[in-house]
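2.7 Reproducibility. Because tokenized structures are sensitive to small changes in the input, we list the exact sequence used for Large ribosomal subunit protein mL43, including any N-terminal residues retained from the expression construct. No trimming or masking was applied before prediction.
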Amino acid sequence: RAFMESHLPALKEKNPQLEVVTQLVRGQHPNLKGIYKNHNERVVCVRNLAPEDIMLQASRLRCSLGRKVVKLRTRHVTKRPSVQGTWTTELKM
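Resulting structure tokens (single pass, no recycling of outputs):
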């Protein structure tokens, strides 16, 4: 409630490109929901967070692209993989 009274109006003024909608749902924990142009959604629970922490979560939702997190198969990504194989520290010269 403190975030909605103090920080939410400032967030709306600083970011006119965002559509900010508040909705009261009784019996549910407070959440921030980001809906992106690519039709993905991200929901962040802000239960028991200070207004500054909620502002941080809102800015993270605003700055993210809305893509799903994809785990890479290897640590390095290259267009031309090595013919000799991957280098490791166990190789001796």
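The chain has a mean pLDDT of 85.
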